[in-house]
Amino acid sequence: MVASIKLGLQFPCSLSNNVVKLGFHYSSSPSPNNKRRVSLMVNANSNRRLGGTINNGENNNINDKNYKVNGVRVAEAPLTLRKLKEDSAEEALVTCMHGRFQEGIFVYRQIFAIRSYEIGPDQTATMETILNFLQETALNHVANSGIGGNGFGATRQMSIRKLIWVVTRIQVQVQRYSSWGDIIEIDTWVDAHGKNGMRRDWVIRDHFTKEVIVKATSTWVMMNRETRKLCKIPEEVREELTPFYINRFAISNEDTDSEKIHKLTDQDAENIQTGLAPRWNDMDANQHVNNVKYIGWILESLPMKVLEDYYMTSMTLEFRRECTQSNMLESMATPTSKLIHGNNFINRKVNNNLQFTHLLRLLDDDQRPEVVRARTEWHFKNYADSI
Q1: Strand segments (E) across 59-211
Q2: At 13, is the pLDDT very low, low, confident or very high (cuts 50, 70, 90)?
Q3: Which residue numbers are catalytic?
């Protein structure tokens, strides 16, 4: 039996007495590839005004609670660069698209749909897509927290002191890759990491089944935007962050990749891809290469057979220095077991799994300074089942 649900939301708009309608259509009839579809419709109607509220049984709206940071209630900070008129239809729509808080002010959740240009040759979301989603959720978390400044993910006190966040390490574990049209939800939260660092974790779930498909954790430190030197967290910044800290781990301690990533040399590397050049569009708002761009360069030095017959189940990145548009890089990779034991390629397959050690380094001088060390794990694709 086919059943469908239509849900409509209408927001009164102050512009020309229009009404903006936001509609969702959900069908319980699965498509040929066993996926249910959700459609989003927005239109304007100047003839009538209707109002209403929807309650899904959850009291997760942070605006109902008196949480204030720097005199601003959490989730009331500006969501865009322009001022949105209070209670306007535009603000309601933007808030819906930017996610909301869960569990008070501690967990921030955002929903994404996998678009056609975010999948790779195997028709699933790429690792770059996953990292972009994680980054977008983190930035919106700060923007909606009430402590956001005018920097790229910086708090107000960080902006005053010209400080920015710099990631030092990130680990991503993939249980399953999403396909085109899938709807996912991402939860993120933060906690202290040592005396002068912050840890940010993420969990990605299938929006409908709530199956956990990706887990990730990262560590961050502060850098002066002008001197490009690392610095301690000022007490004023710590006071902004502490109310949001929650002692929770997306990846358990026993599963966290804390092992040192070995440095590759020219003698160790089995594959080297040189002449990689950052483009203008690879730069982020902090004037260095976006962290996600490194993933594509890392994969450049892997054998095509690995990319075709295996899928990545884990990636750990260790960032060692900045990269700017004027730099040239080379990407190096070798199976980890060769680096440690010197075994040949055939003997490096264990239970159909592979592990590689990677290095991105600069070509600007004879020292070849390191930019990123990485470790990836790969599992043999079973074409009888979906990934």
Answers
A1: 68-69, 72-73, 100-102, 107-113, 163-174, 183-193, 197-206
A2: very low
A3: 286, 288, 323
